[in-house]
Amino acid sequence: MALRKILSVCVGSGSEELSDHIFASGWMALSATDVSIARRIQAQQDVQVGVLLLADSSPGQLSEVEEWLRLSSRMEWVGVFPAEALASPVLRELVLSCFFDYHTLPVDWRVLNLTLGHAFRRALLRGQGDGHLKAEGSMGMVGHSAAVVRLQQQIRKVAATDAPVLIGGESGSGKELAARAIHQCSRRAAGPFVAVNCGAIAPALIQSELFGHERGSFTGATAGKLGLIEAASGGTLFLDEIADLPLELQTNLLRFLQEHTIHRVGSTRSLQMDVRVVAASHMDLAAAAAAGRFREDLFYRLNVLPLVVPSLRERISDVPELAQHFLRASMADQQPRRVEGFSRQAMTAMMSHPWPGNVRELFNRVQRAAVMTDHRLITPADLGLAVENPAGLELDKARTLAERDVIALTLGRVGRNITHAARELGISRMTLYRLMDKHGLAPRAG
Predict the structure, then answer these.
(1) In Å, how far from its chain's centre is CA 201?
(2) Closest CA to 435 of 82, 411, 154, 445
(3) Which residues are paired to 280 by β-bridges?
(4) Closest C-alpha to 37, from 24, 28, 50
(5) Pairing relation of β-strands 236-240 and 49-54?
(6) Of 43, 235, 278, 433, which sits most exposed with the smallest number of CB within 10 A?
(7) pTM value?
(8) In terms of Cα–Cα distance, which of 315, 381, 397, 303 is closest to 343?
(9) What is the pLDDT along the chain (446 residues), one digit of tens a residue?
(10) How far apart, in Å, do the first and last CA atoms of the chain sit?
(11) For the residues of 330-390, what is the DSSP string, one character each?
């Protein structure tokens, strides 16, 4: 049987002794004597369990270790510390947030080996669960806030039917991502997904683009053309920013939704279409219909199954996870990777920003910062965000932010297992459920 890999990181002394005992216990120990070496090993090896011996618990060292562990959250970590070091509240918070378990020096090697075995089995379960969540649970959405979990539950329900869906939400909140999730969760997943931005097509061409045309039907029509509705046959047609559709085209779209047939421009023959329509708009279509800017009958035809994608302000607890996700995507092609994460000040600034541009704004700021920064850790200035003066923070607000962050990080580290998270936080399960509800942190969907 192949040896199980473990990343052994010793910041300070004791690296050889730790690695020797791990290897003698049936593990393949990949040793590192500092954080930078550990990062290089992680980039080259697929390792699920790590053990960190931290002899140096100075504030500067703890800050570096914390930033590194935040980016290693998919691993199960076991810590080994001098007993007196745990008097530090910073280290205690780090242990609660980032470690599966911990031991104090001198090490009881038999007990440590049992702990590493438990961590390895947990890592195996997490690895098996990741594929299921990716295929069925996450829907390509990053985050575990109550708002995101609720949206995913709604998507599963509407995906089971073929009725039209109308998606609302602010610009940049992820309406097309929700539409794609509906398609992927439906019986039409093997069919085409055709996205149309109704505001990006010239009014003179949109009739032909949507419905197609016959050869010679107008000047310049030297050949027949398949319309986008026809191209989506057997799948899903996503009409983004449908409020920008000209009123005369709204009549034709209404007829298609009622009769499931289309007429190409220049043709008298009707074509039967099997297409599911999902529409979206950042505008209030009910108000637009009442004001005469949108056909009221078309609004009611589209608004059979309404969904609203939450703004980033409504799911602010997802910002750290989204930011890390976008940073990894931005850095994927950079060799070597210059940027290793976000500073504590940057994370605070992102949590305080109102995000008028929603997820799109967050992505753009992170992508720009990853390219332009000269620092190892991205700063608020790199993101173009102001640093909130800590002295200006109300004490209650500061406590609330800290409480939410610790709970969210602990839940993420233990795979959102309520029992394990409550145990590590030193509170009851009922208290944890109450705090999760308070901060909008939803439990795992059943």
Answers:
(1) 30
(2) 411
(3) 167
(4) 50
(5) unpaired
(6) 43
(7) 0.59
(8) 381
(9) 345 788 888 887 656 678 778 877 778 888 888 888 887 777 667 788 999 998 877 877 887 888 788 766 668 899 999 999 898 888 888 888 788 899 998 888 889 988 998 888 888 776 554 433 343 446 788 888 888 888 999 999 999 999 999 999 999 999 999 999 999 999 998 889 999 888 888 777 778 888 887 776 666 666 767 888 888 889 999 999 999 888 888 988 899 899 988 888 777 778 888 999 999 999 999 999 999 989 999 999 999 999 999 999 999 888 988 998 898 888 766 655 678 788 888 888 898 899 999 999 999 999 999 888 888 889 999 999 976 554 445 556 666 777 777 787 778 777 778 888 888 787 887 788 888 878 777 665 44
(10) 35
(11) HHTT-SS----EE-HHHHHHHHH---TTHHHHHHHHHHHHHHH--SSEE-HHHHT-PPP-G
> Token pair for residue 406?
């610790």
Please, which residues bridge with residue 338 across strands? none
In the numeric block, the tokens 């090896």 are attached to 45
| Cα 17 from chain centroid (whole Å) | 40
* Cα–Cα distances in angstroms (integers) from residue 372 to residues 43, 286, 335, 400, 441, in the given order: 22, 43, 15, 32, 33
Angle (CA) 420 422 423, round 5°: 65
